[in-house]
Amino acid sequence: MSGIGGANPLRDAADRRLPRIAGPSGLVIFGVTGDLSRKKLMPAVYDLANRGLLPPGFSLIGFARREWAHEDFAQEVHDAVEEHARTPFREEVWQQLIQGMRFVQGTFDDDDAFEQLKSTIEDLDKVQGTGGNFAFYLSVPPKFFPKVVQQLKKHGLADQKEGSWRRAVIEKPFGHDLVSAKELNQVVHEVFPPNEVFRIDHYLGKETVQNILALRFANTLFEPIWNRSYVDHVQITMAEDIGIGGRAGYYDGIGAARDVIQNHLLQLLALTAMEEPASFDADALAAEKTKVLGAVKLPKDLAKNTVRAQYTAGWQGGAKAVGYLQEEGIDPRSKTDTYAAIKLEIDNRRWAGVPFYLRTGKRLGRRVTEIAVVFQRAPHSPFDSTATEELGHNALVIRVQPDEGVTMRFGSKVPGTSMEVRDVSMDFAYGESFTESSPEAYERLILDVLLGDSNLFPRVEEVELSWKILDPIEQFWDANGKPAQYTAGTWGPDEADEMLARDGRSWRRP
Ligand code: BG6
Questions:
Q1: Ligand 1 centroid vs 260 CA: distance in angstroms?
Q2: Which candidate in 68, 115, 162, 458 could, as Cys together with 462 as Cys, close a disulfide (CB 3.0–4.6 Å)?
Q3: Mean pLDDT score across all residues of the chain
Q4: 172 is an annotated ligand-binding site residue
Q5: Span 467-494, mean pLDDT?
Q6: Is the pLDDT score of 226 beyond 70?
């Protein structure tokens, strides 16, 4: 089948080898006026079309309160694409995509609007050949999830007719804690069967994250030492230099741990620590991730092994950044964490006794996400003791972003010395080794939804286990005073450094 854009020189080699083109279908976005939709979802739809991966009659429906005509919506998509799409703008692709664009105006309580949505879908089935196959993307605050899915049910929009599908795509955060996540799951599953529910964790759509599995299981080099006998500890860092931008309403009360540790960082931990799955299909992958998340153990002393903090005013990138409590829309008494660091252990034979340190923060030194597997020191060294003291730990660093690749760190003899050993790095960089460019995570994930491929979507069990890990920490923080502080533009609070120093370790400065 040839999609929108037909034969497209932009289609990369991997796609040529494995053309995964969506069949007749459409996407409905709730919350289409939001940031995520403008920056990520609309551009991803266009990029997929531009790569020839969408069917010719693909349709995009926006649903929101805004009083827009179809043309206004199309103009919004156009602007979003111009500003944020990854691939160049091509008029012929746009002209084809626009044929299937519609806007439905209304609130989530508005029955007429949902009837309007229904007739829009029926109309598109006729004129665009979408075959009744629609995915509903809930890019809305979690408190609206139940309402929207109930409306979809009430108006027959979730009903799958013979030979067609209806799917729900749900943005994170999926709940606020274990109890609310369970309630949400129940509501969603009353309306959509589990295999038609796609919970988005966009980190799983990143090429570098998928590569963790290739690195571990397509090679012989790493797996034999990927365990407690050789690994000293693992550090998973997701540092951002941005503040909360215009997201005060979302962020305050949620904080760093709920925003990204509960989902992105625990998924990175699961992929790093899980056993090899029997195959790479969705069930086998979920089974292994679930096992490892189920084996995660919290340290007994949460005061010593967790840190939460807020940024205070500082200089970043040559500009003055205000402190979190001075950000517009933030309660000046807020205790919300903009930085969180936690130590976890995994209670199984492979990892017993190996700490996994997770940290994330806004307004840190620079934007970087990496997983560093730090190995134990050599048990014996034939070199003299001064040299041995200087020798660091070997490490394998998976650079998730922005400088995508893998670094191996090891000791090497310094030329011209008798036997001084110093740490050096060996690098693999995507940009140097591949000519293919990486699609945006949302391109991959939206395409997977349309194809019904759920490999890269966390299952309900994973989401619930992740809350189970985080809930006691959040409760401990709620009950125990105020967050620590760190200056914007630095690498976080002293308390986080002290936390590792107590274990005789230190954070990497990527
Ligand atoms: C989102 C968080 O899930 O991930 C944001 O809600 C964060 O707070 C974002 O900024 C980071 O995504 P990325 O892909 O830029 O690392």
A1: 7
A2: 458
A3: 93
A4: yes
A5: 96
A6: yes
Contact 49, 443 (CB under 8 A): no
Q: Where in the chain is the domain with CATH 3.40.50.720?
A: 26-171
CA distance 53 to 19: 8
Name the percent of the chain in helix, strand, coil, to the closest 5.
40, 20, 40
The pLDDT, as a whole number, for residue 421 is 86
Domain 26-171 grouped into CATH 3.40.50.720: yes
Question: Is the pLDDT confidence value at 234 over 80?
Answer: yes
Cα 51 from chain centroid (whole Å): 23
CA–CA distance, 149 with 142 (Å, rounded to integer): 11
Q: Is 326 or 418 the better-scoring residue by pLDDT?
A: 326
Return d(Cα 355, Cα 231) in angstroms, integer: 9
Given a contact cutoff of 8 angstroms between Cβ atoms, the answer to whether 121 and 78 are in contact is no
Q: Which of 302, 285, 238, 298 is nearest to 462 (CA)?
A: 285
Q: Residue 437 has which token pair?
A: 């460019």
Q: Which tens digits make up the pLDDT trace of 427-436?
A: 999 999 998 8
Nearest CA to ligand 1 atom 9: 260
Contact 86, 440 (CB under 8 A): yes
Q: What kind of fold does domain 204-440+455-502 have according to CATH?
A: Dihydrodipicolinate Reductase; domain 2 (3.30.360)
| Own/partner long-range contacts of 257-260 (Cβ < 8 Å, ≥24 apart) | 257/308, 257/337, 257/340, 257/342, 257/360, 257/470, 257/473, 257/474, 258/173, 258/176, 258/470, 258/474, 259/173, 260/360
CA of 474 to the centre of ligand 1 (A): 20
pLDDT > 90? residue 420: no
Residue 389's pLDDT is 46
Q: Is 223 annotated as a binding residue?
A: no
Which tens digit of pLDDT belongs to each residue from 333-347? 999 999 999 999 999
The answer, yes or no, to whether residue 16 has pLDDT greater than 50, is: no
* Of 129, 126, 120, 150, nearest in space to 138 by CA: 150
pLDDT at 510 over 90: no
